Amino acid sequence: MEAFDGEIQKGALRRKSDVIFVTIGTPAQGFPRLIRKMDEIAGRIDEPVIMQIGHERCRPRNAQYFDFVSDFTEIKQLNARARVVVCHGGIGSIMTALEQGTPVIAVPRRMKYGEENDDVQVETVDAFAKEGLIRAVDEVSRLEEALGQTIPRREAISSKDQLITCLKEYIEALDKAHR
Amino acid sequence: MELMRLLDAFVGHELFLVTYDDVIARGMDTAPIRSTYFIELGDENILLLDSLPQLFLHLIRVAVEELKILIKERPDIIVTTGSEIAIPMCYMGKVLGKKVIFIESLSRVHRLSRTGRLIYPVASLFLVQWKPLTEKYKRARYGGRVM
Fold first, then answer.
1. Which residue of A has its CA nearest to B23?
2. pLDDT tens-digit profile of A59-102?
3. A-contacting residues in B 7-66 (Cβ below 8 Å)
4. A14, A89, B34, B106: most buried, per Cβ within 10 A?
5. Taking a C-beta distance cutoff of 8 angstroms, is the pair B51, B33 a contact?
């Protein structure tokens, strides 16, 4: 299928729920396990699929795709627009989707498949799924089933206020000690 | 990306940013930041270097660039979430009497990142976003999360 050239309206973050957005982030490793399965699913379902394929060399046949964007706003817009995001377990991808309030299905990259340098994504995805924020899918054969189900849609584990206060207090204590 | 969500913590202080050339870094809202320095990663992507000796060699070049920034800007505090390019800055900063605040990524639940492990010895404040890490690392504090 042709590369996605974007009908992105600048400045608009609008939910249309008319696409599935697949994203595998920027790691140097490809993620053929996820891209191939989602491409296969895209060929079966009616719903359009748009994929950010990063360094993955396999080109989808049933979905529009692009590798990277030069303006990150485009990624935010695709997240805002999508009915659901299917992503690798990268914290950036998960956070971006949650910030836009979009349901997330996360497939952690596995070191054993050469998809990442370590299994941090397994930890991340597991922890977020336990908090009820995302749906974790480890085996891509279960993706199609997950896409048909209702996915949790909480926006955050907690607010960032606590962390901001913690930093402020530490810095203020340093300021005082300096005077 | 995580650090940019915390800029409110530094209101009233002058901020400059050191980062590597990356579209996500470029796309962030950096309004409170006075100036930004981009560190070139070069042909060898240091983020992929598994062995510490290889990483060390590449960080020497980064260290020279960062030392120039340290001398020019003279920060009081260095705040970082990583990645590896932060290591020379934190060590040099510590030697020069700066305070180092490290915030481990929200992705790290049970094990620290390599950058976290390497900066842990010189951090004045070492924050983690999941409580299990405070059990493993005695100086790590749970201070909340970026989201």
1. A70
2. 999 999 999 998 888 999 999 999 999 999 999 999 999 999 99
3. 8-10, 13, 22-24, 26-28, 45, 48, 50
4. A89
5. no
3-class DSSP assignment, residue A105: strand
* Burial class of residue A70 (count of CB atoms within 10 Å of its CB; 0-12, 13-18, 19+): exposed
3-state per-residue secondary structure call for chain B:
CCHHHHHHHHCCCCCEEEEECCHHHHHCCCCCCCEEEEECCCCCCHHHCCCHHHHHHHHHHHHHHHHHHHHHHCCCEEEECCCCCHHHHHHHHHHCCCEEEEECCCCCCCCCCHHHHHHHHHCCEEEECCCHHHHHCCCEEECCCCC
What ipTM describes this predicted complex?
0.91
- Its pTM stands at 0.90
Taking the mean position of all CA atoms in its chain, how far away is CA A140?
15
Torsions phi, psi of B70, nearest 5?
-60, -40
The residue type of B47 is L
Q: List, as ranges, residues 93-122 from B with C-beta within 8 Å of A.
A: 99, 101, 103, 105-111, 113
